[in-house]
Amino acid sequence: MSPPTVAAGAHPGGQQAGPFPGHPVAAARFTADVDRAHWHDQALWFVRVKRDRAAAQLPAWERLRELAEGLKAHALANLAGYLEAFEKNATAHGAVVHWARDAQEHNRIVHELLAARGVTRLVKSKSMLTEECGLNPYLEARGVEVVDTDLGERIVQFRHEPPSHIVLPAIHIKKEEIGELFHQELGTEKGASDPKYLTEAARGHLREKFLAAQAGLTGVNFAVADTGAVVVCTNEGNADMGTALPPLHIACMGLEKIVPRAEDLGVFLRLLARSATGQAVTTYTTHFLGPKPGGELHVVLVDNGRSALLARDPFRRALACIRCGACMNTCPVFRRSGGYSYGTTVPGPIGSVLGPTQGPGAHASLPFASTLCGSCADVCPVRIDLHHQLLAWRRVLVEGGYAPTGKTLALRLTAWVFASPWRFALAGRLMRAALRLLPAGLMRRLAGAWGRQRDLPAPPPESFRDLYRRTNGRP
Amino acid sequence: MPLEGGEAHNRAAMPTVALFVPCYVDQLYPQVAVATLRLLERHGCRVVFPPDQTCCGQPMSNAGQASDAAPLARAFLDTFASYDHVVAPSGSCVAMVKHQYPGLAPDHPALQKVRASTFELCEYLHDVLGVRKVEGRFARTVGLHRSCHGQRELRLASGSERQVPPFDKVKTLLGTLDGIRLVEPARTDECCGFGGTFAATEEAVSCLMGKDRLDEHAKAGAEVITGVDMSCLMHLDGLAKRERRGVRILHVAEVLLGEAA
């Protein structure tokens, strides 16, 4: 049996060769090109600002977030019942519901559905779940052509890369680079980088793929327990195009996508697009209630570690995530280090909470790839306390022995010094003397990573406690 | 010395304030602790410095080393248990006491009392003493760096993310100084990249974040950058000094005393 891999299956880390080196190294590579890091930062900050403006238009924004948090907590606390209700209602409308324990079972179910119908050409709309499960390579190895039809996903598919962001999969690629890629893949004019021209070319290319497809696969944004509908949100209409033409529609979803009632969508749909892209609503919000006349609808419910996470406090709250990507857009680290610096399918703050669930010591650098600034928690539409979860992970990782030994011992020694006012005062005196007496160059080297780009503070002649004592409390 | 403040305060009714001086402020920035003490006295407080204090334990706790932080948390609670109020020139260390101590010293008898009576300096002036006008002059163009833990753990300001009625306790106090010109960076409350051990373990991102903050404050025209946390300011100052940027970095206690006037 494969290890549980909640929503953050490992990927090879984009352009990097070799095993994933951990966030600090991958991030340092990305920031080495300062102009590009700033460009990436600005592009995502622009989305964050759009999100702020969209959120400000709803007077009830904070109330909506509280409602969404409560609805998700309720749905997750009663997950088994809602999943069974969903299965019953979806089945009553003619859909077929499949249950997959893990990624392998999910991939096998999808392939069997395709193979039984002789499907060799599949179009897909955005689904981070199928990225997590590694569906594309699984199907391609079995002779199925898989075409990702979201424009950003098609771009990274051409480049044989995973998405670098869950909502904006190609945010790390400049339009000139896309122009060159499309010149090679689609025969667009050499040197052309006008987004409208390139989008038109992709549209023509994808239109042929849609027309030729024998099946369409979509992700799921919400599955409604009391109606049995699955709801898919896109801006490009590619989920609709991909499911309207071929007779077979497969919708793949993680167990946590359940909402209790159709009316709950009034909360989540108002939050989702505003949080994700700053739009009031996605261009297309499609409710699939049973198959179309003469067609088939199969819904694959995937666990893949989710029920194990549900049993784990406090990390279970991460299952409330609706995959809007707002935590990535606001994260000052993500914006400057890029999605591939996380080495997981879902990157950023939520990915840093989900990554370590893949097993003891997995992705141990991610919970430390944060200043704990807390901006992620304040933009999260379902109010996941992301930065507190990162802190909680740090404790779990240290207790499990997965933190760097040198750092742990250094801090343990510091704690021992701090445990006595006498030792603390002495250590302080020694440090200030060193700052005063040793050559600046040597101190810089001793200060290691602090001193490479930062000057050390000028040492005062005495500490506050010495001053306070010397002046009898009248400094 | 006259008492300031929107509401009349009787000196006799003023509580005894225990000064909680973060470890690195004690050793590296004693002038910030002195400014804090003077500012509190100027506003009518009787201030004492309990000499047994060392460190709140945040460096260990934020690194995930709860068992190394717990003894420091218990010692802190012992040291500060008997005071009416505990005030620190730091949002981050106060947030540590308020939000992390329940997990580190859950059974300590003074836990709830000390949590409830510990305040960041500006929060204390604004909320507890009710100060609405700080007497003094600071005729400089000043940018406020909103340190994250003060911002999002203590809610010293409404913040750019949340859709709530706007407020900003630190800026409100600064704005009452005579002659001060406050300027805003384009991103009003983005993190500076200090982040404790993050500053070293993620040096590349940390320094880029800090330089970006300095650039934005420079673009806004700040001659002085101030804030409630000397740790963030130490990081920004270190970057600024290395690049000889010339911007002056001062703790908010120093600015509120009107020292550079």
What does this structure look like?
The complex is a heterodimer of chains A (475) and B (261). Chain A contains 22 helices and 10 strands. Chain A has 475 residues and is an alpha/beta fold. In chain A, strands 1-10-7-4-2-3 form a 6-stranded parallel β-sheet, sandwiched between helices. In chain A, strands 8-5-6-9 form a 4-stranded mixed β-sheet. In chain A, a hairpin with a 5-residue loop joins strand 5 (222-224) and strand 6 (230-234). The longest helix of chain A has 23 residues, at 34-56. Chain A is globular. Chain A starts with 22 loop residues before the first helix and ends in a 5-residue tail after the last helix. Residues 1-16 of chain A have low confidence and may be disordered. In chain B, the strands form 2 sheets. Chain B has a 4-stranded parallel β-sheet, with helices on both faces. A 4-stranded parallel β-sheet of chain B has the order 6-5-7-8, sandwiched between helices. Chain B has helices at 23-28, 30-42, 58-62, 66-80, 91-104, 111-117, 121-128, 148-153, 169-175, 198-201, 203-220, 230-242, 252-256; strands spanning 16-19, 46-48, 85-88, 118-120, 141-145, 181-183, 224-227, 248-251. Chain B is built from 13 helices and 8 strands. Chain B has 261 residues and is α/β, with parallel strands linked by helices. In chain B, strand 7, helix 12 and strand 8 (248-251) form a beta-alpha-beta unit. In chain B, helix 5 packs antiparallel against helix 6. The interface between A and B is large, with 78 and 74 residues.
